[in-house]
Fold these 2 entries.
Entry 1:
Amino acid sequence: MSRKGTYGRREDDLGALIDRLVVMSEELSPEQKTQQEPEEMDEFTRLKKLAARQVAEIRKMIGDRDELLEASGGSGGRQAVVLSSKIRELLRNVHETHKAMQNQLSVEERQMAKEEHLRVKGKASLLSKDDLDAHIQVVELTGKHIAECEALEKKRYQTGGGGAGGGRS
């Protein structure tokens, strides 16, 4: 089998992979996901699940891009550029989702403070103090996941390729 034939097939496979990633990115966009989520889910839970999907997709795309760079000897060509662009776009999207989570948490904290006097009167709150504490932890953890994804993205530029190792020593 000639080298040119193998390269052409690999390029077609990579093109198909990029097309699949574009479709997945569109499926993960916040505008379309809001229509598909069940209505019984509260806003914070919906945002948490969206952020988790976005972070998982970013990690997968970084791994795919790094494999492409390793296989091509570091250049990666057009496919690597497209994947890197999609990764940066998804990072912007997950930052927006994280900001929305922080805003929702602020609303919940204000609501908890308002409802404090209702608890004195014996009326139940929709959100317990433990739930609020859990939401605070989720927002902090989501921020850490985003920072780790950004570090993996930047690692490629600092080391001249690679980053599929997950950033752990």
Entry 2:
Amino acid sequence: TSNGSAVYTRWGKKSCPKSAELVLSGYAGGSHYRHTGAAVDALCLPRNPEWGNYRDGTDGSKAYIFGTEYQTTGMFGKWHSLYEHDVPCAVCLVRSRSVVKMFPGRKTCDNGWQLEYHGYLMAGHHNHIAGSTYTCVDSDPESLQGGHTANNGHLFYMVEARCGSLRCPPYVEGREFVCVVCSLEN
């Protein structure tokens, strides 16, 4: 922003770290994993939506937003227990910062950068029709209360390395990617 502040989304959490102010605590959402014309970005949707002019009911000639679920079956630690749970998100404001950036393949920030959070890189499944974006989901993820149903709309899967055109080493075949979100002071 022009006042020397920056805004970012903390995926997988309902709150912001102590260094940031909570702007919005909401629900992660996005396009359906099977829709060919899908939007690719995940959204942090407010818990208290407002509406303009509308007509209830779906008619097939619109774009759709679905809730996001963790697809983490067979994963390690807390991730396994979150399989098919709905994903929360928080929009966070950091003051006196000029840039916020997600760095894949890192758990720490370089000198001069401030850690906002670290986690695991997630995206849509490689075999799904809809495109997706790489999203950094907090390493201590939460879920939304009552959101444990396999609705299978917008889905987050762990991202792992595949060797070939990706150099191995330093990367390792089949290893899950970590990520970090860092901010730069003004």
